[in-house]
Amino acid sequence: MTDPLHTELLEIAQEAARRAGALLRDGRPADLAVAATKSSPIDVVTEMDIAAEKLITGLIAERRPDDGVLGEEGAATEGTSGVRWVIDPLDGTVNYLYGLPTWAVSIAAEQDGETVVGVVTAPMRAETFHAVLGGGAWATGAWDGERRLACRPAPSLDQALVSTGFNYVAEVRAHQAEVARRLIPRLRDIRRGGSAAVDLCDVAAGRLDGYYERGLHPWDLAAGDLIAREAGALTGGRPGERPSGDLAIAGTPGVFEPLQRLLEDFGAWHD
Ligand code: IPD
Ligand code: CA
Ligand code: CA
Asked: What CDD domains does the annotation carry (predicted)?
């Protein structure tokens, strides 16, 4: 039976994601500009990232004022309830800035440090993914209603379609490009979608066999990682570790382990 707290957190996450997604989709100014930069000149923030985070944190504060919050655009409160929200108000900002459709709102809720709820909505795909710990992963689309997600039956690694991402810091990107150069001949192909949250949901939906990236933050990962696991994917970091900023890997069973081994051999982690 589902824990009533988890049901409450899921409903809040779904409402916040729906409202922020609509704001981002319908409120995108035609002349959208970069408002600020962060880790490097190509790591950009727009007024819409900030507006979406404000909407989400405002709704959470109204419904559950004692919860902690960690948001990419600066929200950081401790809370006293044992619940913490981990929010990427706009994952895929560069795609959004250019008018490409692959971007998402990602909202996770942790209870005592463990992710128990994850919601990722991708408005330009008219698709929302969600998972509650132990309750499976689900997608709701405009055309096909709600369906339970199951990751793809494993192909051999040389038949696997694997997505990745590149960090905003030039030296990290150069290292990542070198790892990808060594990996490509061992796979079917590589994709670079531009939203870590969507990549993880695509592993859950069986549209990718695997995904890996170095340099992610908790808000990129939290919701998508739970959704991928609840769809039967394996996730981790370096061998024996949980996914983290050092390295995050997700894959269908059968792809995850050989991919993790190759990434270890190629030194894909943060050093
Ligand atoms: C980025 C996206 C991208 C990934 C970067 C992330 P942002 O998030 O998820 O796919 O490669 O590492 O920082 O900046 O668009 O929220
Ligand atoms: Ca992000
Ligand atoms: Ca973001």
From this structure: IMPase (cd01639)
Total domains in the fold of the chain: 2
- Closest ligand 1 atom number to CA of residue 219: 16
CATH number for the domain harbouring residue 207? 3.40.190.80
pLDDT tens per residue across span 64-76: 999 999 999 998 9
For ligand 1, atom 2, the nearest C-alpha belongs to 195
> Do 103 and 175 belong together in one domain?
no
Note the pLDDT of residue 41.
Answer: 86
C-alpha of residue 118 to centroid of ligand 2, in Å: 15
Where does ligand 1 bind, in terms of residues with CB under 6 Å?
88, 91-93, 165-167, 194-196, 213, 215-216, 220
Q: Ligand nearest 89 Cα, by number?
A: 3
Q: Per the domain annotation, does 85 fall within a domain?
A: yes
Task: Clarify whether residues 111 and 211 are in a common domain.
Answer: no
Q: For the chain, where are the alpha helices, taking DSSP H only?
A: 4-26, 47-63, 93-98, 170-183, 196-204, 218-230, 256-265
